[in-house]
Amino acid sequence: MNKVACLVLALFAVAYAVPSTYDTENVWVAGNLSYVIPDNAVLGGFDPYGFNTYVGRVKYINDILPARVVAETGTAYFNTQTISSKVLNYDILVADRNVKYVWVRSFDGFYEKGIVAVGTTVKNERVFCCRAKTDGGVLIGTLILSDKVCIIKHETLALRKFDKYEVLVAQPINGTIYY
Q1: pLDDT per residue over 90-122, tens digit each?
Q2: Number of H helices and number of E strands within the chain?
Q3: Model confidence at 4, in pLDDT bands (50, 70, 90)?
């Protein structure tokens, strides 16, 4: 009986030890204050201070999360369901010559064709970029389709959950087909 219990516990641990993975469908480049923001970086909106923000991603504990990158400060802001934080090392999404990126209205966790994932959570759920107008800016947030809301928190401001938001979608140029 002890052996069976240990086997079940080991299988459970392995099932939940799946590491998060980065998106490889889009082009991401390393970024920090020392690097110049590429000309083809994807614009995500603007923050309450009037700075443009770019689409980024960060690794936080074991999850890959969307981030809003402020070029002037070299900082990437990201959020989870409970916290908002900032980091100085991140990846920036850049436009490939065969793809254009557009923000499309969406709601309630609907899966839009071509939606851009940043990676996965430790539970192997895909994580997507979303954004909404809030707190004096258009801020990038975190969308996990099963949660059905775009989660946005900026610095000391309150956590917001939007059931209507925009998602980032990759659209092919010149007849290239992406699914």
Answers
A1: 999 999 888 999 999 999 988 999 999 999 988
A2: 1, 14
A3: very low
Q: Is 145 helix (H, G, I), strand (E, B) or coil?
A: helix
pLDDT grade for 15, boundaries at 50, 70 and 90: very low
Location of structure tokens 């309150």: 158
CB count within 10 Å of CB 151 equals 23
Domain boundaries, the chain: 22-172
Q: Could you tell me how many residues make up the chain? A: 179
What pLDDT does 175 receive?
59
Q: Among candidates 102, 104, 101, which has minimal Cα distance to 112?
A: 104
Distances (CA, A) of 123 to 64, 80, 82, 146: 11, 14, 17, 12
Kindly give, in sequence order, each residue whose CB lies less than 8 Å from that of residue 178, ignoring residues fewer than 6 positions away: 25, 99, 114, 170, 172
pTM (2 decimals)?
0.83
Could you give the CA distance from residue 35 to residue 87 in angstroms, rounded to a whole number? 15
For tokens 């100085």, name the residue: 88
